[in-house]
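The protein record filed below.
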Amino acid sequence: WFDLVRTQKWNEYADTYVICGDAKGDHTPKTYQRTIEPFHYLRPIPQGQLDGMEMTKEEKAAYQNPGYRD
């Protein structure tokens, strides 16, 4: 994951993947699509870390990584 994020290749390699079916014993390959948004390249800042900061609620919300803000 770290290399995919560092090289910005995560979306290129992981937006479509093939895996077996949902049911037990179903070995039929199925193709799944997912949308990886730009904010997924960043992890959210843990709430405990934000709670420990001496900032207003608005400043903490602005400090959080995009896509994880309330």
